[in-house]
Amino acid sequence: MFKLHFILLAAFACTEKYKAGKKSSGSNEWELVVLDSIQVDYLGEIREGTFSNGIGLIKNISGSHMVMFDSLGTILVKKEFPKEGPGSMMWLESLLEHNGEYYGTTSFNDIYHFDANLNL
After folding, report:
1. Cβ atoms 80, 63 nearer than 8 A
2. 46-86: per-residue pLDDT in tens?
3. What Cα–Cα distance (Å) separates residue 29 from each residue in 21, 26, 32?
4. For range 12-35, the mean pLDDT
């Protein structure tokens, strides 16, 4: 008899705790919260971007432009690359910063290394 009471008590306690922990709306909606933003005076279709240590880098998808900017949105470097041939960036998928240097990767396992002036 003790085991039956204990099981019922445990089930009741777990059920109440579960109900109390549920949201009242029953919704699984997410809310976007913008904590900060930077306005950069650049018009283009952005494909990739990264921002760290006060410096941002974005790549235009339709053209072959890359833009480096600071935390105030000031454009530091704007570079255009050839669409084909030597010095072009084909199929750039991601940009990342590591120890103050910038790298781009492609789906073909190519790695681009950029200097401070965005030269390859």
Report:
1. yes
2. 878 888 888 888 888 777 889 999 999 999 999 988 888 88
3. 16, 9, 10
4. 64
Distance of alpha carbon 85 from alpha carbon 81, whole angstroms? 10
Is the predicted pLDDT of residue 20 greater than 70, yes or no?
no
User: Between 90 and 24, whose confidence is greater?
Assistant: 90
Running DSSP on this structure, what letter comes out for residue 77?
E
Domains of the chain, by residue range, sit at 46-114
Strand partners, 79: 66
Could you tell me if 79 and 65 are in contact, meaning their C-beta atoms sit under 8 angstroms apart? yes
What does CATH list as the number for 46-114? Answer: 2.40.10.480
Indicate the helix (H) or strand (E) that contains 3.
Answer: helix 2-21
Q: How far apart are CA 59 and CA 19, in angstroms?
A: 48
What mean pLDDT is reported for the chain? Answer: 77
